[in-house]
Design brief:
There is one protein chain. This protein is mainly α. Helices cover 47% and strands 11% of the residues. The chain has a two-stranded antiparallel sheet. It is extended and about 75 Å long. It starts with a helix and ends in a 23-residue tail after the last strand. The mean pLDDT is 84.
């Protein structure tokens, strides 16, 4: 009987601990936003439109090794946009699922003498 009560107590303790971990993982500090969002500025509207264009150009169709033509079109779109921004994209070609694919790399060098808290190189990556 004593063992059963101990096991029941441990089980309840484990349940409470699990609930506590679950609650902590999902809890958001402060209060959630209510009401309408503030109006976007003209710059924010332009940025939203540009981002929508990029997402539609790249992600509106499946583009993976099962759809190599679409994957290539997405890669070209990214390279063209980076080139238009003045960068020099480089391809890192490799084979995946029997299809030649590539990562697209752009190196952005700091301006002469630029040093942000001791950091002189910034690496940014994204999957397309």
């Amino acid at each position: 009987m004593k063992i059963a009560k101990t096991l029941l107590g441990l089980g309840l303790l484990a349940l409470v601990a699990a609930f506590g971990v679950y609650w902590y993982a999902l809890w958001m500090p402060g209060r959630g936003h209510t009401g309408p969002l503030p109006a976007l500025t003209e710059r924010e509207r332009a940025m939203a439109a540009t981002l929508r264009e990029h997402v539609e150009a790249i992600a509106s169709r499946p583009h993976n090794t099962s759809h190599p033509a679409e994957l290539e079109a997405s890669a070209r779109q990214i390279e063209q946009r980076l080139t238009a921004l003045g960068f020099t994209p480089r391809a890192q070609v490799f084979t995946a699922a029997g299809v030649a694919v590539r990562n697209i790399e752009v190196v952005v060098e700091p301006t002469t003498g630029a040093n942000i808290d001791g950091v002189t190189t910034l690496v940014v990556g994204a999957h397309y």
